[in-house]
Amino acid sequence: MELKDTIRAIEDYPKEGVIFRDITTLLKDKDAFKKSVDEMAAKIDDDVDKIIGIEARGFIFGAALAYKLNKGFIPVRKPGKLPWDKISESYDLEYGEDSIEIHKDALEPGEKIVIVDDLLATGG
């Protein structure tokens, strides 16, 4: 099975010129979802301490990877969603600007982390 064959491409979404990669078609296929998590997990060294998942699709794969690898999971969220002291970072997208936040106490100095994001969605 080729995982790319289980992902739907939607042209001109969310704006003209962007090709959105819709992973809901991969997620509903139990074999494709399992294979995607297993293949990502196989690429992660054992000495990683935590997995970070960036809202929203990064939560899906990040949490599954953290569970499979027996690691802690840290959600990175859109502004206003985290209840504690946080750090914020803004970034540009091909169709605008956005920002993300993480709790200040989410990581300890020297920890090794893996960041999971859905860069596949639009490439941004």
Which class best fits the helix and strand makeup? alpha/beta
**Rg computed from alpha carbons, rounded to a whole number of angstroms:** 16 Å
Helix content: 10-25%
How do the strands of the widest beta sheet line up side by side? 4-3-7
The low-confidence runs, each spanning 5 or more residues with pLDDT under 50, are: none
Measure the end-to-end span: 27 Å
What does this structure look like?
- The structure is a single chain.
- The chain is α/β, with parallel strands linked by helices and 124 residues long.
- It has three helices and seven strands.
- The protein has helices at 24-27, 30-42, 57-69; strands at 8-11, 19-22, 50-54, 72-76, 86-93, 96-103, 113-116.
- α2 (30-42) crosses α3 (57-69).
- The chain is flat, with a radius of gyration of 16 Å.
- The mean pLDDT is 92.
Helices and strands in order, then pairings?
Elements: E1 8-11, E2 19-22, H1 24-27, H2 30-42, E3 50-54, H3 57-69, E4 72-76, E5 86-93, E6 96-103, E7 113-116
Parallel strand pairs: 3-4, 3-7
Antiparallel strand pairs: 1-2, 5-6
Helix pairs in contact: 2-3
